[in-house]
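INTERNAL AUDIT FORM
Audit reference: QA-55
Scope: verify that the stored structure record matches its stored sequence.
Auditor: D.O.
Record contents follow.
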Amino acid sequence: MYAVVIKATITDRDALPTELSDLVPIVSDAPGFVAGYWILVGQNQGTSILVFDTEDRASIQALATQVAGSEAAMIDSVEVGEVWAQA
């Protein structure tokens, strides 16, 4: 399995719930999707971890994330890495 790790700065916290309610079903329907976590860290930092079954599928999602716009957050970084363990 491979994970897409996205770090973002929240620019409009009020818009975030609506944006996530639209985004989560789209991401969860992506081919190879295994699990996803959207985490708020502090007042204005977000981290998302999206797990896919293959590196290719994770890389496709990473590219889509970099291209997609957001009204609620500014993407700071997008990385793909191999999942070594889970609990």
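Auditor finding: record pair retrieved intact. The helical segments are 16-28, 55-67.
Action required: none
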